[in-house]
Amino acid sequence: MLKKIVIFGVGLIGSSFALALRKANAVEQIVGVGRTQTSLLRAKELGIIDVISTSIEESLKNADLVLLAVPVAQTEAMLAAIKPYLQKQTVVTDAGSIKGEVVLAARRALGEKIGQFVPGHPIAGLEATGPDAAIASLYVAKKVVLTALPENSVEQIAVVAQAWQQCGAIVHELTPENHDAVFAAVSHLPHLLAYALVDDIANKPNADLLFQYAASGFRDFTRIAASSPEMWRDISLTNQTAILAELDAYIAQLTRFRAQLAAGDGDAMYAMFSNAQRARQNWQRSIETAEIQPKQDSDK
Ligand SMILES: NC(=O)c1ccc[n+]([C@@H]2O[C@H](COP(=O)([O-])OP(=O)(O)OC[C@H]3O[C@@H](n4cnc5c(N)ncnc54)[C@H](O)[C@@H]3O)[C@@H](O)[C@H]2O)c1
Ligand SMILES: O=C(O)C(=O)C[C@]1(C(=O)O)C=C[C@@H](O)C=C1
Questions:
Q1: What is the pLDDT of residue 292?
Q2: Are 137 and 105 in contact, with CB atoms under 8 Å apart?
Q3: What structural domains and CATH numbers belong to the chain?
Q4: What was the pLDDT predicted at 290?
């Protein structure tokens, strides 16, 4: 049981963490720190947080756990503001979608207190933002990747891992470099492609006509283009190298495909479509097995 947790950023991710811990009866008091009073008042109204912080110093007194759930470019300034008031027993974690730059920012901001920071990333989310979008079950049977630091103690890592497990999540560990390369391929690139496609269509002279007939294929491919521009700007800039590598590989793939189409090479196109279909079906089956099983267990 955590006595006090402090959440910086009461948006989708921070508020869902709060709701999940409350549902599990795993926390006594939740304090919210925000950029705008509006989201903090709304989070309090919705019963997500108990207390709206008016001072970082006060909020950190006797805290067990601090979660940063803000756009990743805020990490360094936020940890620098926290550092003077960070007590020895408090563990700090984050939910940022990239880890390499977050770790560098944390080292710069926290200095000798870096051992108290256990970097994390829940692999669950939505295109919606803010406390109204929060869901208590968002993390159930979903992965949370920790990229623990050599300076973290086993106990500090356990505080963060156990909090996520209380939310129903399954904790994995990766190095920050592996993390950023993996998510550049399977999360960051798809978001950028969806944004680019919708922007391209929106800028066409006949955009209204095109959107009028866009249907479920368009909906499935572009849901994530409704995500937060601030969040995705920060992810793009802080994971620039890995995203550029994935973007180049994708452009090469499109160039290959374009040549096949221009040449009317149906066999080559069929081979690529079949390989992708098989891979997508296998992925769907394996993810369903992994994610449905724990849900059934927890229903017992
Ligand atoms: N949305 C997802 O699918 C998802 C999934 C996993 C991880 N993440 C990561 O979680 C973090 C939060 O994303 P989200 O989806 O909850 O976004 P969100 O927009 O719903 O919430 C972010 C909150 O942070 C607040 N904020 C911004 N700057 C702040 C500051 N300086 N001080 C205090 N509060 C501040 C905003 O007001 C907002 O309430 C991001 O780092 C993102 O990369 C998002
Ligand atoms: O489902 C969505 O809307 C998401 O964008 C979630 C998603 C993802 O790409 O899967 C996005 C970013 C996160 O860092 C983790 C999860």
A1: 65
A2: no
A3: 2-174 (3.40.50.720), 178-263 (1.10.3660.10)
A4: 81
